[in-house]
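Section 3.1: Structural characterization of target chains.
Under the original work plan, the team committed to producing a structural model for every single-chain target entering the pipeline before any wet-lab resources were allocated. The record below documents one such target. The sequence was received from the expression subgroup and is listed exactly as submitted; it comprises 194 residues.
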Amino acid sequence: MKKINRLPNHTIDYYKGILKYIGVFLTFVSIMSCVSVKVASDYDKEANFSEYKTFAFYKTGIDKAEISDLDKRRILRAIETEMLNKGFTKSETPDLLVSIFTKSREKVNVNNSGYYPYGYGWGWSPYYWGSYNTVTTSTEGVLYIDLIDANKKELVWQGVGTGYISQNTNKKEERIKEFVTLIMEKYPPGTENK
């Protein structure tokens, strides 16, 4: 009769512990990648941003944004708060018109959570090794905030934020504020490095 070599229990427990921590680490990394908002901005180098003191929302542009009216209001309130915090005044005869544009897409995430032992095997190890996958979906959203010179009717600044959106109403409001705050940190140009 052939003798089956078995790993000592402490070795098996060691490998189980490593696999557990690898799974926890991969889950943490996937959650953290969903949390961050990537932001960027672009602007007209000829524009004199110190001349802009007042703003209003550009209804024509905002009406084209393909999101719910509730989300539009959330975004506009957050933008208004940021503009007021930057010293702007809301006006009927503004220097800047504020418009928004949004895009979203569903992403399917497949995470291979590593290998795990199961059952009794043959040869030197009492375990077979297998793997398992977890599949999740998330919505990646892109928010553009456009600032248009009201007199020239020209785009002078654009900020964009890309990140994941929560479907939970309370978290969605927080997430929208986070998007807008991080995007507006880039305005006016040159302040993001200070």
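The first strand starts at residue 38 and ends at 43.
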